[in-house]
Design goal:
The chain is α/β, with parallel strands linked by helices. It contains 29 helices and 28 strands. A 7-stranded parallel sheet has the order 18-19-17-20-21-16-22, sandwiched between helices. Strands 2, 3, 4, 5, 7 and 8 form a 6-stranded mixed sheet that branches. A hairpin with a 6-residue loop joins strand 11 and strand 12. Helix 5 crosses helix 6, helix 15 packs parallel to helix 16 and helix 16 packs across helix 17. The N terminus is likely disordered.
Length: 699
């Protein structure tokens, strides 16, 4: 009865069906599309499920199923949508979808939110002090943050969403030419600086190149700066400190001029001369104002002694030990040098990073090569008008070694870490000369590396040789037992993506077996057991001592040095020892350097590899080859440095047909890595899990 009343009051009408797309911007990068089917315009009925529901009670609409089906097919064919089902589009998929809607009726705010409003135009200005870089639409005063543009570019997107709504096309051709340089500028911008910030001087050449290409005038001062950054030979001589008490060699004077130029220009410097060429002296010559020197604990006193010798007017304080807090406050400002260790830097990073230093020097900066380490993070926080990094081996294992050091010196020069690895992470493995050349060109103005053979021809020759020994039957049995017990299991785990620790543990035991079986836990043998390697050492050592030479013997294991010590005592050979437990390092070194000093010094690779001069010796024995050749080179350079009068012979003792042979091959690859970046070498390599797996499979 009620239906009849409604039907009596209502009028049955005939209308065309139509589809309306309800578009809703759920976020600046997310669009919802919901197709609805209506009858009439304005709408008098809506299809909900299978029923046509009236919108106005007084009107009843007659359905046209054939027309509805045609609309459904067109919706599916054109837009891949279905009536009554929501679809979500994001970013450029949403833009592409909206671009297809010119023949469709739409509602909601999504259409305007996902419309491309035009092509962005780069806009930058520069007054030599500050720079501003932004992007804008030609007919709009609004600007887009460059960081947002670069993020879209790195994600291979062609459009970017605008703050006020809508989207804009990226300037593809412009970014193709300049994105790398702009990315470095963004990475170097201090947090909270906004779009406008003072451009670090080490990035001025990037902006100058953009100006040059875009027809923007470049000031003469900037042109001159860029020209001088191209090579050390073009630098003029700078006045030396009046209190410098040292006669600089010609290459050292050039190094000092280079450091002084970069200090004046406000750029950090990586002095990467070969070990033994006087990096410490060159850096002491350019110390100015309140200075912080961070170095390994073992060379703190050596730094203090050299500063007192070469710059006696400087006040030196060693910030170390339990009573150091008051010392830091007492140094105040002025020509004061504070010496501290990397360990104290990590502990007291808040105090040390809150001081505006005039000069900050990091010695042996390979210590901060791992950017994830607490020491590296503490170093990156240090504030200094002029920063110097000293390292004879700035690249030891990975390209990250280099990035971390430059992040201390010139933050942003090598972009952020993720961008750096994205650009160059595969350059070493693929031996991509184009990428290596690009990186080398990027760092060339800020790194100075001279080799002994090039700048110190007066140094006597250095000869390296491998002394092979054949393991005895009993030693071979221990070696093979280690292989048999774990090789296959370790290889299988590595092949399935397992940790490398088990592999490294096995390799450690094999290396110990090559030196002396008593070093292997559970071998049941003691130090009185024979060793082919120690027999070879004593044979070669006695021969060199009989000819009047003196020797350094290095090992990474103090337990192996203990065994050598026993042999030396049995032969009545005078010796001294320097390892991690040595407290009077300077006295031990000084005693050995005397003309009547001990014939032999035993040194642990870690404690004796840096910061000391042992030119009284000219024969060096490395008992156990290490993965990283830089560590061995540092050890050898204790003797092969300025002051050495005799030819230097470096003996690497290697067990034949063992893991040690494979280590020598890996050393060559690692040297290629460093040379590929620091010199004109075209090949480089890194030690990877695959390297370890290949090594194990060849044992």
């Amino acid at each position: 009865l009620e239906f009849r009343r409604v039907l009596f009051r209502s009028k049955v009408t005939r209308h065309e069906p139509r589809i309306v797309l309800h578009l809703q911007a759920e976020s600046s990068r997310r669009l919802s599309a919901y197709p609805q089917l209506f009858y009439g315009k304005p709408s008098i009925a809506e299809l909900q499920g299978d029923k046509l529901v009236p919108i106005r009670d007084e009107v009843i609409c007659e359905r046209d199923l054939e027309a509805e089906e045609k609309l459904r097919k067109r919706l599916l064919n054109d837009l891949q949508l279905q009536v009554g089902r929501q679809s979500i589009f994001e970013d450029e998929s949403a833009l592409l979808f909206v671009s297809k809607l010119k023949d469709w009726e739409c509602s909601g705010n999504g259409l305007s939110a996902f419309t491309v409003q035009g092509d962005l135009v780069p806009d930058f200005c520069w007054d030599e002090e500050n720079f501003q870089l932004s992007f804008h639409l030609p007919d709009s005063a609004g600007q887009v943050d460059p960081a947002k543009i670069l993020e879209a570019w790195k994600e291979n997107r062609s459009f970017v969403n605008l703050e006020g709504g809508g989207w804009a096309a990226l300037p593809h051709d412009w970014l193709l030419k300049y994105a790398d340089r702009v990315a470095a500028m963004i990475a170097a911008r201090p947090e909270g600086a906004g779009d406008s910030a003072s451009l670090p001087s080490y990035l001025v050449p990037d902006l100058a190149q953009i100006c040059e290409d875009e027809g923007v005038p470049v000031p003469d001062r900037i042109r001159a700066l860029c020209a001088r950054l191209q090579g050390i030979e073009s630098l003029p001589k700078s006045p030396l400190p009046s209190d410098l008490k040292a006669q600089l060699r010609s290459y050292q004077r050039k190094g000092v001029d280079w450091l002084l130029f970069l200090r004046e220009a406000g750029m950090g410097a990586l002095l990467a001369d070969d070990m033994g060429l006087g990096k410490t002296l060159q850096s002491i010559a350019v110390i100015q104002g309140r200075t912080l020197v961070v170095c390994p604990t073992s060379v703190l006193q050596s730094w203090a002694d050299q500063i007192s010798e070469f710059r006696p007017s400087l006040k030196v304080s060693i910030y170390h030990g339990g009573s150091r807090a008051s010392l830091l406050e007492a140094t105040g400002s002025g020509q004061n040098v504070v010496l501290t260790s990397y360990g104290i830097l990590r502990i007291d990073q808040d105090k040390l990073s809150n001081i505006d230093w005039d000069t900050v020097i990091l010695d042996e900066t390979q210590v901060i090569k791992n950017p994830d380490s607490q020491i590296a993070k503490a170093a990156h926080r240090l504030r200094g008008k002029f920063k110097i990094a000293l390292s004879g081996t700035p690249v030891e294992n990975r390209l990250d070694d280099l990035w971390s050091q430059f992040q201390f010196l010139n933050p942003g020069l090598l972009w952020n870490r993720a961008e750096f690895l994205q650009r160059f992470g595969d350059a070493m493995k693929s031996s991509n000369p184009r990428k290596i050349d690009k990186l080398r060109a990027r760092i060339r103005p800020f790194i100075l590396r001279r080799k002994k053979t090039d700048v110190a021809p007066e140094l006597p020759p250095r000869t390296e040789m491998v002394l092979h020994c054949d393991l005895s039957e009993e030693e071979t049995s221990v070696y093979r037992a280690i292989l048999a017990s774990s090789k296959q299991e370790v290889i299988e785990k590595l092949g399935m993506g397992g940790s490398v620790f088990a592999a490294l543990e096995m390799l450690l035991r094999l290396r110990q077996a090559c030196c002396h079986p008593s070093l292997v836990p559970g071998s049941g043998l003691d130090g009185f057991y024979g060793s082919a390697k120690l027999n070879l050492l004593m044979e070669s050592l006695e021969e060199s001592l009989d000819l009047g030479h003196r020797a350094l013997i290095f090992s990474q294991w103090t337990s192996l040095l203990d065994l050598v010590e026993t042999r030396l005592k049995d032969k009545n050979i005078s010796f001294s020892r320097l390892d991690g437990s040595t407290r009077n390092r300077e006295q031990v070194v000084s005693s050995f350097q005397k003309e009547n000093g001990p014939s032999v010094m035993l040194l642990s690779l870690k404690a004796g590899g840096v910061g000391i001069t042992l030119t009284a010796a000219d024969h060096i024995y490395i008992l156990d080859p290490w993965w990283n050749p830089a560590a061995e080179d540092q050890a050898a350079d204790r003797a092969h440095r300025i002051g050495q009068q005799n030819p230097v012979f470096i003996h690497r003792l290697v067990a034949r047909n063992s893991v040690e042979d494979k280590i020598l091959l890996l050393q060559k690859k690692k040297k290629a890595l460093a040379e590929g970046i620091l010199s004109d070498s075209k090949s480089a390599a890194d030690l990877t899990k695959d390297d370890i797996l290949d090594l194990l499979q060849t044992l």
